[in-house]
Design goal:
With 205 residues, the protein is of the alpha+beta class. Helices cover 35% and strands 25% of the residues. A five-stranded mixed barrel has the order 1-3-4-5-6. Strand 5 and strand 6 form a beta hairpin. The longest helix has 18 residues. The chain starts with a strand and ends in an 11-residue tail after the last helix. InterPro entries: Lon_prtase_N, Lon_prtase_N_sf, PUA-like_sf. This is LON peptidase substrate-binding domain-containing protein.
């Protein structure tokens, strides 16, 4: 069981070994970054289930380690988090800090520390094909040569991070049990959204 200071942010997914750039401007999260820099550089990224000053949270998030930080003169920060392991929130703590803190379990995600493995060639090709179709349909400009050089895990994490899926869908990607399951889900989602099956704004279940 670990104690984590958390940054609830909808749509901002962090996966083990992936990077997440953040611009920190709210006073409570400036305090969070200052506290993390004075201790262990860890921040727990987690998605809220709603809006407001203190929304309920999803149970699963990812521990990020601050690998680069730029402190700006007005108190804001630019930083880059590197994902270490996912966690499951056990309970929220009653604290005096302006930022929220939780107790969390990381043992159930021990596999996150190991090699993610590789994808079957057909699945890798399916993701690249669907990502290209999805991007072209929406007029996104992508360096596909650079995409083709990404390893399998980086490709899947990058698509999951940047694709404009809703919060619940992104949470499903975070909670996928491993690389292959997440990759299958990414390919299905890209195909689903491209074909416009969510015209009424529904969420995949």
């Amino acid at each position: 069981m670990v104690r984590l200071s958390i940054f609830p942010l909808a749509g901002a997914l962090l996966f083990p070994r992936a990077h997440l750039p953040l611009h920190i401007f709210e006073p409570r999260y400036r305090a969070l970054v200052s506290d993390a820099m004075a201790r262990d550089r860890r921040i727990g990224m987690i998605q809220p289930r709603g809006e407001g000053a203190r929304p309920p949270l999803f149970e699963v998030g990812c521990v990020g380690h601050i690998i680069d930080v730029q402190a700006l003169e007005d108190g804001r920060f630019n930083l880059i988090l590197e994902g270490r392991t996912r966690f499951r929130m056990l309970r929220e703590l009653d604290v005096a800090t302006p930022f929220r803190q939780i107790e969390a379990d990381t043992d159930s995600f021990a596999a996150d520390a190991g090699d993610a493995g590789t994808l079957a060639m057909m699945l890798r090709a399916d993701i690249e094909r669907e990502a290209r179709r999805f991007a072209e349909q929406r007029g996104y400009v992508i360096d596909w040569d650079a995409v083709s050089r990404l390893d399998d895990e980086s490709l899947v994490s990058a698509v999951a991070q940047v694709a404009p899926f809703d919060v619940a869908t992104k949470q499903a990607l975070l909670e996928a049990s491993g690389l292959a399951e997440r990759a299958e889900l990414v390919a299905q989602l890209l195909r689903f959204f491209r074909l416009g099956d969510n015209e009424e704004g529904g969420t995949l279940q």
